[in-house]
Amino acid sequence: MNLFVFGFGYTAQALVRSPAQQWSRVAGTVRDAAKAERLRAEGIAACTFEDVAMVTEEIRRADAILVSTPPADGADPTYARYAGLIEKAGREAWLGYLSTTGVYGDQAGGWVDETVPPDPRNGRSSRRVEAERSWLELGARSRLTVAIFRLAGIYGPGRNAFVSLARGTAQRIVKPGQVSNRIHVDDIAAVLAASIARPRSAEIYNVSDNEPAPPQDIIAYAAKLAGIPVPPDIPFERAELSPMSQSFYAENKRISNRLIREELGVRLRYPTYREGLEALYASGEYDQAT
Predict the structure, then answer these.
(1) Of 102, 184, 243, 261, which alpha carbon lies 20 to 30 A from 267's?
(2) Where are the beta strands (DSSP E) in 175-219?
């Protein structure tokens, strides 16, 4: 099976190394020629997003297409530039679009499954909803099997609480009642591989762990594993937050992952942040970050 990725980054790399799926050929777009050259040295047929000739060639041979490029300036760049080409290729291919659970907006701590209508509260999430709709419409009028994956907060090697602790940037901001879900990148890869193996057209999946938890608990657990002092509590009202962090704390919800478990048969390797952090610590993640 041949894979083509728009935006060959962190999640795509996890999918490529996933034992659940073996690829005959892997190709994808990156932002610059230097990264493309590095990936080609690893056996991945990489090119820049603007290399239309190579993208066209790879799309024509792809059995699976993953879109992980975020919308920008009100539009999805991949859809705007390449949707027509993908449709014209006429392949019976799987296409997965990586979205975000942010499309649900604030649910006052309530549970959310895929039947809950999107209620985006910021421009980024609104653009995600539009991108989802565009890709689903493309699937409806083509031979593609399109699936949407709404991802919770991603963590994994090199992107986790140990890294922020080692850098001294970890903050335990406490907002009473605030919870969120997260998902290990390897579990995202397992979900994508399961969907490719059992494709269903126009399906939407929440991709999250089993346990919504207060964000400060993740930092505390990582600090205890690393044997270092737990950073002090910072009341939300006194926290200095970036616009991105402000939007995070403005939304409070619990994400149900029932569909990936029951329909795709995915058994998460890291069902809660505890298993994920324990595995990362055992692999030397904290020592590598210091």
Answers:
(1) 102
(2) 182-184, 203-207
Cα Rg for the chain, rounded, in angstroms? 19
What does the pLDDT read at residue 289? 82
The torsion defined by the Cα of 123, 136, 75 and 153, in degrees rounded to 10, comes to 50
- The identity of residue 99, as a single letter, is S
| Per-residue burial over 142-163, b = 16 or more CB atoms within 10 Å of its CB, e = otherwise | bebbbbbbbbbbbbbbeebbbb
Residue with tokens 């209620």: 119
pLDDT > 90: what percent of the chain? 91
Contact 135, 149 (CB under 8 A): no
Mean pLDDT computed over 31-48: 95
150 and 204 Cβ atoms separated by less than 8 Å:
yes
Average pLDDT over residues 215-239: 97
- Rounded to whole angstroms, the Cα distance separating 135 from 140 reads 9
CA of 54: how far to CAs of 46, 47, 50, 110, in Å?
Answer: 9, 7, 9, 46
Question: Domain 2-158+183-209+253-271 sits in which CATH superfamily?
Answer: NAD(P)-binding Rossmann-like Domain (3.40.50.720)
Q: What is the pLDDT of residue 75?
A: 79
Average pLDDT for residues 29-45, to the nearest whole number?
A: 95
Put simply, whether the predicted model's pTM sits higher than 0.70 gets the answer yes
Helices 77-89 and 123-140: angle between axes, nearest 10 degrees: 10
Chain segment 81-111, per-residue pLDDT in tens: 999 999 999 889 999 999 999 999 999 999 9
Report the C-alpha gap between 277 and 274 in whole angstroms: 5
Nearest to 63 by CA among 18, 1, 149, 133: 1
Length reported for the chain: 290
The domain ranges of the chain are: 2-158+183-209+253-271
